[in-house]
Amino acid sequence: KAEGHVEGEKVENPDTGLYYDEYLRQVIDVLETDKHFREKLQTADIEEIKSGKLSRELDLVSHHVRTRLDELKRQEVARLRMLIKAKMDSVQDTGIDHQALLKQFEHLNHQNPDTFEPKDLDMLIKAVSSRYE
Predict the structure, then answer these.
(1) Can you give the three-state secondary structure of the chain, one letter per residue?
(2) How many structural domains compose the chain?
(3) Is there a domain that residue 107 lies in?
(4) Each residue's pLDDT tens digit in the chain (133 positions)?
């Protein structure tokens, strides 16, 4: 949080350098709209976050928050599919294994492209943590 932050003022966050930076920011923003989750996030230590304990709190967020997270995940899956298609088009090799390409994206559960589940939050946290370790 920025020094001298004024309520309602937009704080610019530095780019994380992750190819899924925008998705990460949107997920955090949506999760922080849920009062219960925001309180848990503020009181959690780094080990609770990394271990996946915080991810289990996702089951307690409001329906509106879950619906928005589901939509964000669908958008991210569509973005990743577009990247894969662009890669395929550039290579022009019809023998590409789509599932193998999707497995490269460790920040979400590609086997369930429609709903954002605790596993997705856990995978997102672990991907960010491993990137920065």
Answers:
(1) CCCCCCCCCCCCCCCCCCCCHHHHHHHHHHHCCCHHHHHHHHHCCHHHHHHCCHHHHHHHCCHHHHHHHHHHHHHHHHHHHHHHHHHHHHHCCCCCCHHHHHHCCCCCCCCCCCCCCHHHHHHHHHHHHHHHC
(2) 1
(3) yes
(4) 344 444 444 445 666 778 888 999 999 999 999 999 999 989 998 888 888 888 988 999 999 999 999 999 999 999 988 888 877 776 665 566 656 666 667 787 778 888 889 898 888 888 888 777 6
